Amino acid sequence: MVHHSPVLHRDEMKMPEEATASNVAVLNRVEFIQQLASQDMDKILLRLLSRPMRRKR
After folding, report:
1. Dihedral of the CA atoms 27, 28, 33, 37 (nearest 10)?
2. Looking at CB atoms within 10 Å, which of 2, 14, 15, 37 has the fewest?
3. Rg (alpha carbons) of the chain, rounded to whole number
């Protein structure tokens, strides 16, 4: 099996300033979104589940 490394991985290995800055920004966004998803998923589900309950009241 031949593993072709994506361009992003090559840029991270070479560490050019522009590529590094953009990659870090993307990675930060991804981590931020994942943290929000993991922390707020229960809250969002509870809100979605509680809205119909309130309406039925």
Report:
1. 100
2. 2
3. 20
Q: Residues 16, 24: contact at Cβ < 8 Å?
A: no
Q: What percent of the chain has pLDDT over 90?
A: 0
Ranges assigned E (strand) in 1-57: none
Which pLDDT does position 32 carry in this prediction? 84
Q: What is the pTM of this model?
A: 0.34
Residue pair 44/51 in contact by the 8 Å Cβ criterion? no
Both tokens assigned to 49: 């589940």
pLDDT band for position 17 (cuts 50, 70, 90): low
Closest to 26 (Cα-Cα) out of 3, 7, 44: 7
4 sits in which H/E element:
none
